[in-house]
């Protein structure tokens, strides 16, 4: 439905978007997640034909945005970060105006009435847009995106500046829209994306650092996660015992934490759960486990790890696997 290939946007020497590629399938709700300045709006402005790319290509519904701009654009409803509202128009006048602008062919009255019902703005239909609350204005913004019933909706940070109740309403609305449209939704807030989206593309500093479902992002981390173990026993012997347990990729001693008790960081190799066998072998030697805990990360922590300067070891491996096949891996192989 949407194909983005090696898209780059450069401002002077600064890369706002640096060689990103991703696809969105029909019917999907894709979350485009990244901190402020990551390149979300730039990408969305290129997808919708508002901005030209320095390099790369975009296809919407099979139409290249440069070669067939009108066909590509007519497949898209766009809600930019700053919705293009005319404050001195009533909602009715504005939607009428957008209907004409988009050269919509559907039955005017019926189509606009249906949109108003869908986004719940019927009760403000005759009001001037400047007198509407931020929540209502945002819904009017969504309404204009829906004019012409485009198969693709691109929504740039649609809940910014809304209060918690309005946020929930807009989220519910987007979820509903997702039943009949392919949606790309950008946000810098993870719970927002998690609540609404099937798949998450994480962008940071113009580069895609992850592309997966929320569930798989978490799972990946759990499989990859590091375990912290404290054992009462001789450091070197315990360490070499741990390292030989099936399922352990790597073990390091973190030093003595209590008298005679050393802490070890264990990285699993992902083949098998090492914990039962580890317990059995340590018990055999009479070296008691004092504590065992996994450094499980929440999706929030994963997002922070993926988008901060010094990406930790586990995040890097996520990044590698996510981007290796797309050729956007800037970190290279073994950098830790
Ligand atoms: P986001 O929407 O994720 O917050 P943007 O796409 O707006 O990020 O911006 C990405 C980067 O590109 C930022 O570093 C921003 O400062 C830069 N940028 C955006 N527009 C321009 C412009 N017109 N000229 C120069 N730099 C720009
Ligand atoms: Mg933005």
What does this structure look like?
The chain has helices spanning 40-47, 69-74, 91-101, 108-119, 134-146, 164-177, 190-196, 214-224, 235-244, 275-284, 299-306, 313-323; strands spanning 2-11, 14-24, 29-33, 55-60, 63-64, 76-79, 152-156, 182-187, 199-204, 207-212, 227-232, 248-258, 261-268, 289-294. The strands form 3 sheets. The protein has a 6-stranded mixed sheet with strand order 6-7-8-3-9-10, sandwiched between helices. Strands 2-1-4-5 form a 4-stranded antiparallel sheet. A 4-stranded antiparallel sheet has the order 12-13-11-14, covered by helices on one side. Helix 4 packs across helix 5 and helix 8 crosses helix 12 (313-323). It folds into 2 domains: 2-75 and 150-220 and 302-324, 3-Layer(aba) Sandwich (Rossmann fold); 225-294, MTH889-like domain (Alpha-Beta Plaits). It has 336 residues and is of the alpha/beta class. The model is unreliable at 310-336 (pLDDT under 50). It starts with a strand and ends in a 13-residue tail after the last helix. The site of magnesium ion has 5 residues, from helix 1.
Write the layout of secondary structure elements.
Blueprint: E1 2-11, E2 14-24, E3 29-33, H1 40-47, E4 55-60, E5 63-64, H2 69-74, E6 76-79, H3 91-101, H4 108-119, H5 134-146, E7 152-156, H6 164-177, E8 182-187, H7 190-196, E9 199-204, E10 207-212, H8 214-224, E11 227-232, H9 235-244, E12 248-258, E13 261-268, H10 275-284, E14 289-294, H11 299-306, H12 313-323
Parallel strand pairs: 3-8, 3-9, 6-7, 7-8
Antiparallel strand pairs: 1-2, 1-4, 4-5, 9-10, 11-13, 11-14, 12-13
Bound molecules: adenosine-5'-diphosphate and magnesium ion.
Adenosine-5'-diphosphate (ADP) binds next to β2 and α1.
